[in-house]
Amino acid sequence: MLNIFMFLLEYVRVVIILFAGLALLFFLESRLFMITLEGAPFFLLLFANMILILVFYRNKLQFSGWYKGKEVKPLPPRTSKILIFTAFLAIISAFFL
């Protein structure tokens, strides 16, 4: 029962991290690059920001959370590099649309 409760706490933590991270990244991108968040660039930035948050959570933040399961592992380095490259490619392409 305690394990389920810890899992639910971790789930709430993930949702809060996702919303806070997306808000922070969108704020920085809109101020830094003077873009509006609408249309195709918005969805590319949303995709890229979600990938960056996923990689950061899976490689760093999940180890400081409440849920300590045996399946909690970081992403492989090659997968992390591919995802980060894809995210930066999406961010760069959002400014050319």
For the structure shown, list the relevant keywords.
97 residues, mainly alpha
Structural write-up:
The protein has 97 residues and is mostly helical. Helices cover 72% and strands 0% of the residues. It is built from 3 helices and no strands. Helix 1 packs across helix 2 and helix 2 packs antiparallel against helix 3. The mean pLDDT is 86.
Topology:
Elements (H helix, E strand, L loop, with lengths): L1 H32 L6 H20 L17 H18 L3
The radius of gyration computed from the alpha-carbon positions, rounded to a whole number of angstroms, is: 15 Å
Number of strands: 0
Q: Any idea what the shape is?
A: elongated
Helix proportion range:
over 70%
Helix and strand content put the structural class at mainly alpha
Residue share in β-strands: under 5%
Tally of separate helices:
3
Mean pLDDT: 86
Oligomeric composition of the shown chains: single chain
Characterize the biggest β-sheet: none
The first-to-last residue Cα distance is 50 Å
The helix/strand order is: HHH
Poorly predicted parts: none
Structure in a nutshell:
The chain has 97 residues and is mainly α. It contains 3 helices and no strands.
